[in-house]
Amino acid sequence: MSKTSAKILPPEFFRRNAVELSRALLGKRLVVIRNGERLSGIINETEAYRGKDDPASHAFPGITPRNRIMHETYGHAYVYFVYGMYDCLNFTAEDTDVPGAVLIRSIIPSEGAEAMERNRGRVGTAHLADGPGKLCRALGVSVASHNGKPLTKESGIFVEDTGFPVGAVEAGPRIGIKKGLEMNWRFRFRA
DNA sequence: ATACTGATGGCCT
DNA sequence: GGCCATCAGTATA
Known about the structure:
Number of helices: 5
Helix content: 10-25%
Structural class: alpha+beta
Radius of gyration: 16 Å
Distance between the termini: 27 Å
Number of strands: 9
Largest sheet: 9 strands, antiparallel
Shape: globular
Strand content: 25-35%
Order of helices and strands: EHEEHEEEHHHEEE
Oligomer: single chain
């Protein structure tokens, strides 16, 4: 039996408008290699963040130490720490020197679910990785270990196309922000 | 199901 | 010093 190998998305995949990239990432598989093990899940919820045209974006005020990678280049991990407790994972988008990123809000666990349960200190796949902070805990993603890394096999964090069928996509306002609520830049599909 | 709240610390002006 | 791109617990329905 030969298993059809999933294709790793190349950097060029991310080189586009963050809003378009948000939609395009739905159904793709996020993979993190941890202790030699593949931890992965299908991306089912994302949010787009841009630059000067987006008051909710970390990039809105201009370049700062934290958001630097959002401006510099596409196809990299932008990981930030919020609320004193949680890490959130984004993929940088747009062309070089144009700010933009996609926040990964939720994944449906596929490989390594048991390790994810341990990482989360919780039993069962329900609500294991259905939030930006939760999925980082589950996958072991943090600022220290992943921020600024290119999304490649060598980095141990990348995205694959497995041909997962995405049904109807719903768009709505982004979560947890107070500005930019008029943009429907949150996307998701139901499994 | 929705609504509220405390925890907890880095980032930015 | 104020503001968070969050979550788990609790309460209420």
